[in-house]
Amino acid sequence: MSNSADVLRIKEDGYDYMKKMLFILACLTPLVCARADVYTVDCGGDPAADFERIQDAIDFASDGDTIVVKPCTYQENIRFKGKRIEVTSLYPDISVIVEMTVITASSDYTVRFDNGETSGSVLTGFTITGRGIHCNGSSPVISKNIITNCNNNAITGVNYPHPLIEKNTITFNGPIAIDNCLGDIIENEITHNGNGGAIHICDGDVMGNVISYNINASDGGGLFYCTGQILDNVIICNEAGGDGGAIYGGGSEIAGNTIFGNKAADRGGGLCARAGTVDNNIIAGNRAAYGSAMADCSAGIRNNTITGNRVKIAGTLSQCPGYIENNIIAFNEGPVGMAGISGVSSNSYNCFWNNNGNNFIGGATQGEGDLKADPCFAMTGHWDANGTDGDPNDDFWIEGDYHVLSENGRWNGTVLRWVYDSSTSPCIDAGFDYWDWKGEYWPHGGRINQGCYGGTSQASMSPLTVVGNVADLNLDDEGLVDFHDLMLLAQMWPYDWPLLREDLDRNGRVDFADYAVLVANWQPFPPPTPSPMTWKSEPNAISTSEITMEAADANSSDNSTVEYRFKEISGNPGASDRDWHSSQIHMDTGLSQGLEYCYIVQARNTVNLVETKWSVAKCARTWSPPSPNPMTWATAPNATSWSSVTMTATSAVATDGGGVEYFFDEISGKPGGSDRDWDASPVFTDTGLYDASTYCYRVKARNAGNKLVTGWSAERCATTPAAPPPTPDPMAWSTPPTAASYSSITMSASVATPGDGSAVEYYFQNVTVTDGSHDRNWGSSRVYTDTGLSMRTQYCYRVKARNQRNHRETGWSPQLCATTPCNDTTPPYFPGGVYWESIPCEQDRPVVPPTQCMYWVVMTAAEAEDDSGGPLQYRFVNTNGPASSGWQTSRYYEYFICFSHKGYDFYVEARDACENVSTASPIIKAWPCE
């Protein structure tokens, strides 16, 4: 991620000769250098070799001796026995020699450091197979070996061992490559080990390794609980059956690593449960159920590029509550709306882009300085479908180039040159201004870039060439270019290495051209103070075309006076610079309304003309209506009930430094709609509306101070829903139908509550009289009296109600009935006391066919009269026999008796409709009719 190691090597090369000479001189002094012997080992039968077995040579050797082992396969167990000796192959730096010099054992550990060995015990240049290496409380050097196909861990430690493990190839071992080793692990290739992962429990620094294709059935496919620094490693395509596809646990810094293509079944495809800071890493193309890039990482996460990670459930970063700053978090994938930061965090000054619909979930919110913009990578990484478009499980990650585009210079690591683009990324100079930007090269903006290269020598160049000085190599507070900078240039002369600050013309080498640049920018005397210049009054619009500003008071550094220069850097129409002048105040006029103009200021001594650095840019917008203009809707009008519509205008930004007021206009003209006069709230709820009606609105805004008004927003409408019918529904009775007289029935409905806020109307239906003549049509009274009814008649009723405004009706009430009474108490009578028109007698009637039974008693009552004039009924009663007519309207009655001379006795009586009964007639005995 940085060129620090490369620069260090360059500087060390300059001292190599001196180091070698000092070493030779020291070894020529007999009091300093003790005698050391070299023994050779060859199991191939070389008679010149001192030993055939390595262990024999170790047993014979003394501290300080070297044992050189020739190519052969040595089937033996090696024990250093605490001796400070070096056991080496013939040429540890030649891979074919290392491959041909094999130590293997079928039982126990192939190599043991079990007797307190220190860094004086060195094993280098072998192929170790069989049972691996064991370190018991020891600290040997294990270097430049191939440790492979061990059916045990490649290197196992117990009792707090601190071996230095460097430049080894450790592959195809199991279950673990390096287990419980607490020393540094440097520049190894650790690949295809499993099922316990690559490195399990370590305490030293893990630096410069390639850790790939390792598998852990539990947590930490690459590293598990490594508490030292994890720096400049390539950690790719590792897999964990639990959490932490690349790294699980631990607490020190993780920086400068490339971490991609790793997978965790549960949490943290890249990192999980780290307590240390995570800085300047590429974390790309990792997969997990939660936190595809990181999960449960509690410390700061800064200046990383986090891209292309795939989450199954939620969160590219999941439950990482620390500071998340200066990162690029872009192109991450997952379920729609679930690929951003999940969980509350302190995020700020990050760049978010295209994270599948939502950047903040599960309580996360946008922080100060967070951008939503395309970071403009030189080349975006991507997933390759591996020929199976419908199966994401076999997709693999293709890495990109995450340097961001810059018109002023972008580092291309392929050609090792600065290249120039046609556009500039918004991530340049966009980081939190608290963080140290001085690792970035000029031109810089005096502010750290976002992403994994921010703050490093590979940071893309800023467009702000007015900030800083290309020749200020020591970045001193004074901004001077003097002999200190010349000395730094001389130290790097003449190195042909492109990524150096001293390469001032960025041509890939330090030479006379860079010296010429330094001379051209020579500034050995300090400028006025403060430097950079500051503002006494930042730019401020005072009208639609004028902006005024004032520089801070500057103090001359050469006892002369001070001049000030103002520069407008937006390039908007009408802007102008102000050249050197003694006045600290500048007013820019002739500007365009509503545009933003940005200014910087510097000062200089009037005698030696040494200039301060430019101030930070400050901007002001000429007066104009608030923005946006025309006004827009944050939430269009929306019916919130049958009688109300709520809406929210976009939060407008005042252009006069004050607040904003909003005016809402209801334009449909429908009853109940109303406007909202100027008010600071962007939210308006219109109430008292009619249901099932469409109301239309528009909104405008104005500055609270200068009252400049935006144009109207687009018109937006909302339709209120239909209000419900009155309650109760179905309707109910307060007083059921009750006869009020012989010709009227009265009743009352329950009090109904309108459903639309208007009044209530009631409808009473007489269901007995079906022609509607006795219904009570819609009316506001809930009491109804039905008149003109027949006496002594049952009438049945039901009632319903409706809203007066929208006529929504309730269901019918239950049907209830009432009967009218009679108004007559006088019984009928037979005029003149004549009861019979023909008295009862036995009548002979032949029947067919003839039988002996052929007699009937027949009779006809006289016509009775009644004062009410209503219909009458008659009843004929047999007092000494079983027959009686019951009440009937006919005055005639007959009774079959079969034989004559029965002598039955009868009387007759009448009654009216009110059941008043007349006086009964005298009893008459029925004899054969004459």
Give an overview in words.
This protein is mainly beta and 930 residues long. The protein is 6% helix and 35% strand. The strands form 16 sheets. Strands 1-2-5-8-11-14-17-21-25-29-33-37-41-44 form a 14-stranded parallel beta sheet, covered by helices on one side. It has a 14-stranded parallel beta sheet with strand order 3-6-9-12-15-18-22-26-30-34-38-42-45-47. It has a 13-stranded parallel beta sheet with strand order 4-7-10-13-16-20-24-28-32-36-40-43-46. A hairpin with a 5-residue loop joins β54 and β55.
Main sheet makeup: 14 strands, parallel
Structural class: mainly beta
Q: What is the number of helices? A: 5
Strand tally is: 81
Secondary structure: helix percent: under 10%
What proportion strand? 25-35%
Low-confidence stretches: 1-34
Distinctive features:
about 950 residues, disordered N terminus, about 35% strand, 14-stranded parallel sheet, mainly beta, single chain
